[in-house]
Amino acid sequence: MEEDLIVGFIGAGKMAFGIAKGLLVSGNVKPEKVMASAPSNNNLYKFKEAGMKTTHCNTSVVKSCNVLFLSVKPPILPEVLRDIAPFVTPTHLIVSVAAGVTIETLEKFLPVGTKVLRMMPNLPCVVQQGSMVFCRGSNAGDPEAALLKSLVSPCGLCEETPESYVDIHTGISGSGVAYVYLFAEALTEGGIKMGMPYDLSKKLVAHTLLGAAKMILETGDHPGKLKTDVCTPGGTTINGVYELEKGNLRCTVMNAVEAATNRARELGKK
Ligand SMILES: NC(=O)c1ccc[n+]([C@@H]2O[C@H](COP(=O)([O-])OP(=O)(O)OC[C@H]3O[C@@H](n4cnc5c(N)ncnc54)[C@H](OP(=O)(O)O)[C@@H]3O)[C@@H](O)[C@H]2O)c1
């Protein structure tokens, strides 16, 4: 990692802290080489406690850092871009994580020639198990893509994709974690309904999800095959699967992905 790299976060909420934590865990970036800005101390204190620099002034972050993560909510981003644009130089690498905000919009607000990457993370970055995709703006090349990958790889999986996939990734991973939590809650409550204490049921469910995810990654098998492998003819699992099919689980989940992707696209047009 380059010695003179100073990483800034404009917006210091959940996502910014998740990414910042990953940077520090890797040891590639020292806490004193990270700076975050936000209007209040509501979230900044966490950065301060971890030894990172903090400020209420966005332009101070721009002037002090060469890699800038834009991590404010999408509706606030245009106002932030307008404020920081006069201070952005060709040496900056701008990485936006705002859902739905396109490269075209980002480049429109920033000086011509600015190196821009658009990244879509998800919240498990906080525990270094994020699922991230990114795409390049017109002035970002291989060195910028490689720099982002090496910076955020401690936060989880990071794949470069065409921009058209980024909103889909919001639908399956950014928002997708919430669907998985909903499923986890239901599975846990199923355990409670059948007489198991909450804590034990929750712990077993979390490990079931972890184990199932690891099987998909490590075997490389289609999830459908893995499901069939668990279904003994006339056994317990196929009876449970039948109930999920009656409840239209797969179609409902696909509709949820479509709704979240479309919402991300709508937000991008605002
Ligand atoms: N959370 C997710 O799962 C997730 C997943 C993918 C992408 N994202 C994207 O990540 C971005 C941040 O989301 P989040 O969940 O981290 O939101 P969040 O927790 O609400 O954090 C937003 C941060 O922005 C700060 N802020 C508000 N106005 C500002 C301004 N004018 N200048 C500088 N900072 C300002 C807030 O300040 P205070 O601390 O003072 O309130 C807060 O620190 C969003 O664009 C979202 O689309 C989030």
In order across it, which strands form the biggest sheet?
A: 3-2-1-4-5-6-7-8
Relative strand content: 5-15%
Biggest pleated-sheet summary: 8 strands, mixed
Assembly state of the chains shown = single chain
CATH class of the largest domain: Alpha Beta
Chemical compounds bound to the protein:
NADP nicotinamide-adenine-dinucleotide phosphate
C-alpha-based Rg, rounded: 21 Å
Tally of DSSP β-strands: 8
Features:
270 residues, alpha/beta, Rossmann fold, ProC C-terminal domain-like fold, eight-stranded mixed sheet, 12 helices, 52% helix, elongated, binds NADP nicotinamide-adenine-dinucleotide phosphate
Q: Would you mind describing this structure in some detail?
A:
The protein is an alpha/beta fold and 270 residues long. The protein folds into 2 domains: 7-161, Rossmann fold, CATH 3.40.50.720; 174-269, ProC C-terminal domain-like (ProC C-terminal domain-like fold, Orthogonal Bundle). Helix content is 52%, strand content 14%. The chain is built from 12 helices and 8 strands. The chain has helices at 14-26, 44-49, 58-64, 77-84, 103-109, 142-152, 166-174, 176-193, 198-219, 223-230, 236-246, 249-269, and strands at residues 7-10, 34-37, 53-55, 67-70, 93-96, 115-120, 130-136, 156-160. The protein has an 8-stranded mixed sheet with strand order 3-2-1-4-5-6-7-8, sandwiched between helices. α7 (166-174) packs across α12 (249-269) and α8 crosses α9. The longest helix has 22 residues, at 198-219. The mean pLDDT is 95. The structure holds NADP nicotinamide-adenine-dinucleotide phosphate.
